Amino acid sequence: MALRVYDTRSRTKRELIPLVEGQIGIYACGITPYSPSHIGHARQAVAFDIIVRWLRKSGLKVNYIANFTDIDDKIIAVSSEEGVDFLEVANRNIDDYFEVMDALNVTRADAYPRVTETIPEIQEMITNLIDKGFAYVAKDGVYFEIDTAPEKYGQLTGQTLEMVREGAGGRVDETGSGKRDHRDFALWKSAKEGEPIWESPWGPGRPGWHIECSAMSLKHLGERFDIHGGGSDLMFPHHEAEIFQSECCLGHDPVVQYWIHNGMINVDGEKMSKSEGNFWTVRDALESIDPLVLRYTLINAPYRQPVDFNSVMIDDSRLNHGRLLRAYSDGLTMAGIGDWSQNVELSEANERFSLGMNDDFNTRVALVEVQSVVKLLRQMIDSNSDKSSISAATGWLAEFAGEVLGILPSKEEALSMSNSEAEARSAISSQVEALLEARESARESKNWSRADEIRDELISMGVIVEDGADGPTWRIE
RNA sequence: GCACGGGUGGCAGAGCAGCUAUGCAACGGACUGCAGAUCCGUGGACCCGGGUGCAAAUCCCGGCCCGUGCUCCA
Q1: What is this structure's pTM?
Q2: Distance (Å, rounded) from C-alpha A59 to C-alpha A23?
Q3: Residue A149 and residue A77 share a domain
Q4: Which ipTM was obtained for this model?
């Protein structure tokens, strides 16, 4: 079954053919840690996490690299504002990143390179570009000269040199920059007062934005690698600049076989931004949303589509995820995890799930199959199916909803969750049983108002009563 | 303005030439004193206008609307 990936550069879905059979090198542009991570970062991290999980599930050996751009203008701005070292700002926000992404069940990348740990490689690349005539030294730094490779312009966004010229023409003189052309971009920025600096052949300074990713991907994945990705907002200029740098430096193209970009997050249909006041950090979101529910929300649309973050969407995810969780833990306690491969319906579900994931990692299609297996499992439980069927369906969920999509807690956690619920139950059990008994006798004498009164009392204790054919059952909300 | 995505039932969101998407909500039924949970069933959609097909939500052309980008210095 062929795995097809939408490649931004060719604007088509193409079959994923690894450079080295059985192996995939993937680089994803991570965050610039100048503030706590927001839900857009979470979407990116989750999207690539699932892509990597699916590649591994497909039998590929994956080397996944995600970087931190830990020196940049915004970090410097925060650091000078707070009067602390720039690395303190970066480290603080990197810690935050790991903490919230762990909560979202994001598998760690194989490496998290940082700009500040890649300075020699960056300088080497810049030297190379100067030597080959693609870059020049100016009074305020080193610039990549766009006109040396005009054919590479607009590779990802379709824009032409002329368009951008119109968009920003004539600014070079105004800013006093040493650029020859305003579309040239900085590889190295000369030191300014009070900024962190590194020594270089072109004087003290720091790397420009863009070069770090070319250098880090080269260092970790080599001169050619399979997949490079990030948010769609990075296509221009960041990723196009990388194409210039890497391909001109290495002297071949393409360096990256497939470019993939995830869509942005909107909040209530509007662009999420600090000035709009609709800005959600992951921490904000986790105050009212369970981490796995948030993850469910983020994969509720294919990774390339925009996701609208709104209360309906979240409530919907909460409901569906809750149903999934309940079916899973019921199945787990009743029958455990079993082999699903002998069950026809589950095998078909597997096929459709895989078809969806192989079609550019369509998690929405995958979730439909999860929902249908939840329904199937529910039916099995309700109709007192044999243990092996229930364990098979539970096993299917563990494998696909758990292992691949990462929206289930681990088996141990799921069981300990039901254990802690059991503890909570036993703590109030005698009290509840007594009330239920009183309610049952009220019901027998058709004293409905008294019965409902008792039920209300139980609800206020956080107990939900459900009358069934064999008498009432109850659970803790 | 230009580039790239997208506009599907009350809502969210798949499908991207012929075959029930799915979930929530609604409606009907089973079970219920009621409620809840669960199950069964029903109705309901493809932004507008042209075009190409035996056949178009799906392809082409033209509108309209939405999102993102149009660089670090500004």
Answers
A1: 0.90
A2: 9
A3: yes
A4: 0.86
